Amino acid sequence: MVYEIRIKSKGALYRELRGLEVDAGIRADAKLEGKAALVFVTRHSGKYAVWIRAKRRPKGDKGTFVGFEQFSELRDFLHGALDDPLRAYVY
Questions:
Q1: Distance, CA of 67 to chain centre
Q2: How confident is the model at residue 55, as a pLDDT?
Q3: Alpha-carbon distance 14 to 35, whole Å?
Q4: What's the whole-number mean pLDDT along residues 64-70?
Q5: Secondary structure of the chain in the HEC alphabet?
């Protein structure tokens, strides 16, 4: 069973990201290149992995992975991409 907890603010999101456990992840609605997308963030060995998937994707599109070494790089990437109001969940 998967449990999700809603994240209500960007400040809370950034706190969750800093303390993200290896077996946890964060899902958020975003807009990238003018298109609605989902971003999934996980952490492994101190690095962040982000899987980006268009909400309306062409057949066969499996999404894109982006890696970030530093939290500040991830924060900068997410800052302009996340939907307002924020729709994000930790699981």
A1: 11
A2: 87
A3: 23
A4: 95
A5: CCCCEEECCHHHHHHHHHCCCCCCCEEEEEEECCEEEEEEEEEECCEEEEEEEECCCCCCCCCEEEEECCHHHHHHHHHHHECCCCCEEEC
Locate tokens 């268009």: which residue? Answer: 54
Which tokens go with 69? 């070494």
**Backbone dihedral angles phi then psi of residue 51, each to the nearest 5 degrees:** -105, 125
How do residues 9-20 score in pLDDT, each as one tens digit?
999 999 999 999
pTM of the model: 0.87
Nearest CA-CA partner of 32 in 16, 17, 51: 51
